[in-house]
Design the sequence.
DNA sequence: GGCGAGATCTTTGTATACAGAAACCCTGTT
DNA sequence: AACAGGGTTTCTGTATACAAAGATCTCGCC
């Protein structure tokens, strides 16, 4: 019935800011991340326009950018849909992120100042607390913040931007392929260990730490290819759009 | 006075194909690569629309996608311009490409079939011939084809797509920062050596080969930061658009 | 001669209209 | 009951109109 973004749109317009394509990109991205927009969801331009109170022009630009970020697929003359990365692509995305984030971690080791290290330390701690409280959304948020911080502070900005993209993409597939029974993808020791290596400046240890961390994360997923868990037909067959 | 794309547009329309945003993206990309559109060139939407015979809607989508590819910059309420990557970004782009293409080469080593190897061998040979003939544009084309072929056949498609992007970006900065006196960026032994490693399947040798090749390429550029060769003011100050 | 204020022009941002493609539904037939 | 066909609906592709932001130019002043 009602849209997912009621309050945020109201807040934005109340604050005097007019809705731009960037706003829509952010909101859709976040909704995909949190699985409020599951893969295959139809994103018709007019519906989105009505929801956000803008015309198709703005929505169109937003969808084009989301397609460039691999969040949605856009085929000619067809409605845009939330992308459903395959198992194969999931493995490849993880491999790419291991390579890139490993390098960023190595570059970053020993080059962060005390303030930055303190920020990370605080995030690591808050992630552990959230996990202890069973507040999984908060835990995910803090975990993402740690990785995003690395991407943002990467001495190599090009690699940093690439890492930002890969973090988004891996988050999507984690949400998608999380093993059914698993409550959380928390790995107790990984982030503290990473922080230690970043502090001491051991580049190769930091790289290995990130590598193993991401490998462990991937191993937590249900990527058994025998029964394609993402049944494309089932997903793409239904009519659900952005309103329910 | 007249546009750079006269013939190609005529050919496309004659062939019955209507001009799409993809067509424009390709043409602008190529023009930037070959420096027919130097950095800083203004790309007004109406002018492009007139040239390609389409309305601003199509041009707009093309520009958005070019911006996502880092080929042009789009600032709110300002005309889109061909991007002029800084020296710093150039170094970072090369570093990123070394990382990614090195990995792709390592993955690819020993996994190409005879047909694919033969294709590469032919390209390597033709590149050498073109260089001998002094036909630099042809030489560049064949060299690019070799690297693109690696990107396309990458077992990891995600890394392959990233590599495709990085090849474009490095090509742009090579054109930008090529040392003034240098006729060609040809390195006689690198591509044959790479081919040999791909054939024998020595992953680490292939990785090192790519790494050294790209490092040598970067060293051929004039990245002396003391006098910023790309004088932003000089470039952005002038009025030249896409027509002359 | 240099500099600033205002008018003018250029260019983008957004909405909207219309045409065409795709999806859907309903009906009639086998 | 399954299926093919045609009409309807939905949705995208493209062009265009208008408003607002930015750039430029001119003129008057110091």
Sequence:
């Amino acid at each position: 019935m009602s849209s997912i973004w009621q309050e945020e749109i109201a807040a934005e317009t109340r604050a005097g800011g007019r809705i731009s394509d960037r706003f829509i990109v952010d909101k859709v991205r976040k909704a995909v991340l949190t699985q409020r927009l599951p893969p295959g969801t139809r994103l018709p331009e007019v519906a989105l326009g009505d929801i956000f109170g803008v015309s198709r022009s703005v929505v169109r630009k937003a969808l084009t950018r989301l397609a460039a970020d691999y969040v949605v697929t856009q085929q000619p003359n067809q409605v845009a849909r939330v992308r459903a990365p395959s198992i194969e692509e999931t493995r490849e995305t993880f491999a790419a992120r291991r390579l890139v984030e490993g390098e960023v971690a190595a570059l970053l080791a020993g080059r962060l100042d005390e303030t930055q290290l303190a920020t990370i330390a605080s995030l690591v701690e808050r992630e552990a607390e959230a996990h202890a409280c069973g507040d999984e959304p908060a835990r995910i948020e803090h975990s993402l913040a740690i990785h995003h911080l690395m991407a943002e502070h990467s001495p190599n900005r090009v690699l940093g931007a690439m890492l930002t993209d890969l973090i988004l993409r891996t988050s999507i597939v984690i949400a998608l392929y999380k093993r059914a029974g698993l409550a959380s993808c928390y790995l107790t020791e990984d982030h503290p260990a990473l922080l230690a290596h970043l502090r001491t400046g051991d580049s190769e240890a930091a790289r290995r730490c990130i590598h193993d961390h991401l490998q462990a994360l991937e191993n937590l997923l249900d990527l058994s290819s025998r029964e394609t868990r993402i049944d494309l037909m089932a997903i793409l067959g239904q009519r659900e759009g952005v309103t329910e």
